[in-house]
């Protein structure tokens, strides 16, 4: 497994990282088998969160005794100091470890949320205190809005930034990565295959890798998937391949959704899932699981046309910071001409 340097931390980590959210749905035996296999194949970056059900507990039982072989990251989505401090301690206990290599202030998607964590009694203060106490080695930030993350990593010496990057969400490549490199912030790209929706898995992972991120964070839920991902990242991306991957991604014609989740739908459409993966539907690039998620996301799309309050001023569009044509997309998916 190839290695990279995680920003200015100087930490050597595997180019392939293991996201652990899905382990909440697996048994302890499955988790133990997969994570130890990943370690044996050279994967050394593991990402958890206090909010991932019992994933931290399973990870700790599976590989906690091998902590000297890997880098463990987790997250807190709390905004105030007291709650964040409590979750940091809970994560240490659940993982069964005496320190965290990285604590990430999680899912920060708006300026008011950022202001909360940066306040004197905010979550950052808890992370800094934990770092001083030896409970945490590095502090990072995560979010779904790359242009805001690019600004925020200049407000504090965050060691890392975690963000979306995939063929259907390519925005961080231009909106965040240049700034992160300028500040030597470690870059961790999540959901490289759109949460498992994109059929062209290898190309998707190679596309993300082509942007020079420090870690490509993938859902490694079985030994077979570990092996596939390790082989996919066995070599660097040279210019001819990068050009081909870039051309492919440009052909997808994404909808511009960053999954900030500001929008809501009174008739039950899962708007971010619809917007982000609608191009996959047009090109028939869904995995079977992606097709199931698409069906669930758009099950209520036929109700959009007749919802009276949204005919002239769609509720979702008034909340979207990117002014996306959400209603017209929903009507197109429903096979209806926009009025």
What is the CATH homology-level superfamily of the largest domain? NADP-dependent oxidoreductase domain
Q: Quickly name the level 1 CATH class of the largest domain.
A: Alpha Beta
Q: Work out the helicity level.
A: 40-55%
Proportion of residues in extended strands: 5-15%
Distance between the termini: 54 Å
Number of domains: 2
Give the low-pLDDT segments.
none
CATH architecture of the largest domain: Alpha-Beta Barrel
How large is the radius of gyration? 20 Å
DSSP helix count? 15
CATH-assigned fold name of the largest domain: TIM Barrel
The largest β sheet comes out as: 8 strands, parallel, barrel
**Major sheet strand order:** 3-4-5-6-7-8-9-10
Category from helices, strands and their pairing: alpha/beta
| Number of E-type strands | 10
Mean pLDDT: 96
Order of helices and strands: EEEHEHEHEHHEHEHHEHEHHHHHH
Can you walk me through this structure?
- This protein is an alpha/beta fold.
- The protein has helices at 28-40, 55-63, 81-95, 111-118, 123-132, 146-152, 172-175, 177-182, 201-209, 223-232, 239-252, 271-283, 288-297, 315-319, 326-333; strands at 3-5, 12-14, 16-19, 45-47, 71-76, 100-105, 136-142, 160-164, 186-190, 215-218.
- Strands 3-4-5-6-7-8-9-10 form an eight-stranded parallel β-barrel.
- Helix 9 packs across helix 11.
- The chain is globular and about 60 Å long.
- The model has no long low-confidence stretch (mean pLDDT 96).
Notable features of this structure?
two-stranded antiparallel sheet, 2 domains, alpha/beta, TIM Barrel
